[in-house]
Amino acid sequence: MSKDEGRGARVHGVKTDPAQFGGGRPATRPPYTAAGISRLMCSRAGCGRQAYATWGACADDNVQRPLCPECDVALNVAALEFMGDPDIISKIGEYVETMEAKIGRRVAASWQLG
Ligand SMILES: [Zn+2]
Fold first, then answer.
1. Model confidence at 3, in pLDDT bands (50, 70, 90)?
2. SS3 content of the chain, % helix, strand, coil (to 5)
3. Spatial separation of the C-alpha atoms in residues 43 and 54, rounded to whole Å
4. Among 85, 53, 65, CA closest to 21
5. Residue 65 neighbours by CB under 8 Å, 6+ apart
6. Would the pLDDT of 14 be above 80?
7. Which of 13, 21, 34, 36 is most buried, by CB atoms within 10 Å?
8. 3-class secondary-structure state, position 46
């Protein structure tokens, strides 16, 4: 990896720009590695935290966009709420606990339940 492959640069040939909604990997390419994801910035507009996972929407051509832990949890909350899941609090609690153990830090609550 060259030194310019960090944040806001090209990573694996994919342009990333934390200032815009963007950055991501077309569905036709293999998934990011864990190390590859952690070099990217969250693609949610205005966020800019270090990425943790990727997420793709069918309406967005399934482009795999980097997401930070906080935005990943917020998106999961929104999806469970949309589906009318009766067990959101318990599910999100377990999800956050597992995620925090994996990343070694607290996930800031940027969502509201209930
Ligand atoms: Zn984010």
1. very low
2. 35, 10, 50
3. 9
4. 65
5. 22, 23, 24, 43, 54, 55, 56
6. no
7. 36
8. coil
- Pair of tokens at residue 60: 């967005």
Give the CA-trace dihedral at 45, 60, 66, 82, to 10 degrees: 80
Rounded to two decimals, what is the model's pTM?
A: 0.73
Reply yes or no on whether the pLDDT at 8 is more than 70.
no
Give distance in angstroms: CA of 99 to centre of ligand 1: 14
pLDDT at residue 106 tops 90:
yes
**How many angstroms separate the alpha carbon of residue 74 from the centre of ligand 1?**
9
Q: Write down the residue that tokens 């998934």 correspond to.
A: 31
Dist. CA 69 → ligand 1 center (Å): 7
80, amino acid identity? L
How far apart are the CA of 47 and the centre of ligand 1, in A?
Answer: 5
